[in-house]
Every structure is written in C-alpha cells, then in structure tokens.
Design goal:
Rossmann fold, globular, 5-stranded parallel beta sheet, alpha/beta
Length: 203
C-alpha cells in the first residue's frame, strides 16, 4: 500500500525548532552575563596558577557533557592551549573507564570521584568540578574529599550551584541561563582560564 503524501499540506508536521540565529542570540546573551562573575573568575585564575606554580596539580570531574569539559581542561594543561609552555599536571577523574566501573561497582556511583580524590589529591591542589546544576552527589562528595585533603575546589555551575555551591572555594556560577548555554559558557570560562595559564607559564 502506498502512503498518500499529497493534499494534506503541513497537517501532522511538527513545528520547527528554533533557528540558528535564535540559538546564537541566546548563547550570546548568556555569555554577556559572565561579566557579573569576573571577580570570581580572577579568583579561579589565582587558584589554578598558584597551585601549578607551587608544584600542585589540577584535577577535574563532571558527568555527561560536563565530563567532556573536565577532560578538555586536563588535556589542555598536559598538552597546551595555543602557546608553547612546559607541560602542566592535569588529571580528569572521569576519563578512565576501568577506574569508573571498578569504583562504581564496588563503592557505588556517588563515590566515583571522591575515591580518586582520596588517591590522587594533595594539599595545595585544585579540584575543578563541572555541572550545569550542582546537584550531583558524586561531585559533592568529591568536593568534600578534596577539602579534607587541603585542596581548593572550583565549581563551574549554573542555576545557583545547588548543594555543591557551599563546598566550593570559588564558584563560577553562570547567571540565568538554560543548561545548554551554561555548558557553552563553561567552555568560554575554561578557554579564558587556559589563556591566563598559558600567559603565566609561556616559554
């Protein structure tokens, strides 16, 4: 039987989603709002550059798309952003599938990152946590473990930072944006941070 595709016009079709210009405008508006957290950003730069200059390291974690941002930070430190400089120690706690499945199986999802913080984090290090809401229990536990070790915690968040906010030494909370635009703003903050790291350690 041949399906009749004639004569019904647009009946039954879904309305199209927002166009590229609309999406880009929303992203630009979210990015413009980052000016409100410039002071916190400078604190984050000071924490990261200070830790690296003192022989410390930067650990990072996140879930889902935020895990990709954590890995992006770590690889740009050990590699480079766009200026030549010495390699810097960055470790993504969400990158090793064997560790994640081992810890998740033996200790549960909530301890995926805190267990690794207990293993790898030292006083003077920085733990960077990426989340659009701040509601992930495994990130809160990682922050608690890092603080117990004497490390500083930087939260890249949205929506006020949720339960993670009071556990952060520096809170980079993207003002008033939907989750997709929070992630885009995290990339801007991440790249701005890496620019400053490159400048601090450039050859």
């Amino acid at each position: 039987m041949t399906r009749n595709t004639q004569g019904n016009g647009d009946t039954g079709r879904r309305a199209p989603g927002p166009g590229l210009r609309e999406i880009a405008a929303a992203a630009a508006a979210a990015a413009a709002g980052l000016a409100a957290i410039e002071d916190e950003f400078e604190k984050a730069v000071g924490a990261v550059v200070g830790a690296l200059a003192s022989g410390g390291k930067v650990l990072a974690a996140g879930n889902g798309g935020s895990a990709a941002e954590a890995m992006h930070l770590a690889e740009e430190l050990s590699g480079r952003y766009h200026r030549d400089r010495r390699a810097l120690p960055g470790l993504a706690l969400c990158a090793d599938g064997t560790a994640l499945t081992c810890i998740g199986n033996d200790y549960g999802f909530d301890r995926l990152f805190s267990r690794q913080v207990e293993a790898f984090c030292s006083a003077g290090d920085v733990l960077a946590l990426f989340t659009t809401s701040g509601n992930s229990a495994n990130l809160a536990r990682a922050a608690e473990a890092a603080r117990a070790k004497g490390a500083k915690v930087i939260g890249f968040t949205g929506k006020g930072g949720g339960p993670l906010a009071p556990l952060c030494d520096v809170l980079l909370d993207v003002p008033g944006a939907a989750a997709p635009h929070v992630q885009e703003c995290h990339e801007i903050l991440l790249h701005a941070l890496l620019e400053r790291v490159d400048a601090a350690f450039a050859d």
